[in-house]
Write a structure and sequence with these properties.
CATH class: Mainly Beta
CATH architecture: Roll
Pfam families: F420H2_quin_red
InterPro entries: F420H2_quin_Rdtase, Split_barrel_FMN-bd
Helix content: 40-55%
GO molecular function: oxidoreductase activity
Number of strands: 6
CATH superfamily: Electron Transport, Fmn-binding Protein, Chain A
Order of helices and strands: HHHEEEHEEHHE
Oligomer: single chain
Radius of gyration: 16 Å
Protein name: Nitroreductase
Shape: globular
CATH topology: Pnp Oxidase, Chain A
Length: 167
């Protein structure tokens, strides 16, 4: 079996399994319970709890996302692995005033902004350089869920910058 064929033979089922995990609400929402119990710090600074408002319902919503970058002490970059159709992404694009918890930071007011394509390419390239093994695992899952191109340059993966607001 050629290397490319072997890679597809292994990564396709793993990607489908990863996507199934992410699309199973009880599993995908499990980290939220850690934050609610005051144990979100256990997840370190690689994860962020994003509290946002439902664009139609006006109800509070929460999601835990991996931090792709932390370019400044008050700034976190996250990706929408399910693209522009992800509910959290649609919500923060409609209402960018959010709250975030990460590491020792707890429910801090922040503002969300979608990164421009060049900024997204740069942030994703930096993440891939810092975490090549994590990216190797995530890439297939994201490509399968997006059905699009995720590698920079020209990634189809929406990236969002979360900046803590100072009072």
């Amino acid at each position: 079996m050629a290397t490319g064929a072997l890679s597809r033979w292994v990564t396709t089922p793993v990607s489908k399994l990863g996507e199934m995990f992410l699309r199973t609400p009880a599993l995908a929402r499990a980290p939220i319970a850690l934050y609610k119990a005051g144990l979100g710090g256990m997840l370190g600074s690689r994860m962020v709890l994003l509290e946002h408002t439902g664009r139609k319902s006006g109800q509070p919503r929460q999601v835990v996302l991996e931090v792709l970058g932390h370019p400044a002490p008050d700034t976190y970059v996250v990706a929408s692995g399910f693209g522009e159709s992800a509910q959290w992404f649609r919500n923060v694009m409609a209402q960018p005033q959010v709250r975030i918890s990460a590491g020792r930071l707890s429910s801090a007011p922040a503002v969300a902004r979608r990164l421009a394509p060049s900024e997204a390419d740069r942030a994703l390239s930096d993440y891939i350089a810092r975490h090549p093994r994590a990216w190797a695992s995530l890439k297939g899952v994201i490509e399968h869920s997006l059905d699009g191109r995720v590698d920079p340059p020209g990634t189809d993966l929406p990236l969002v910058e979360l900046t803590v607001r100072t009072p």
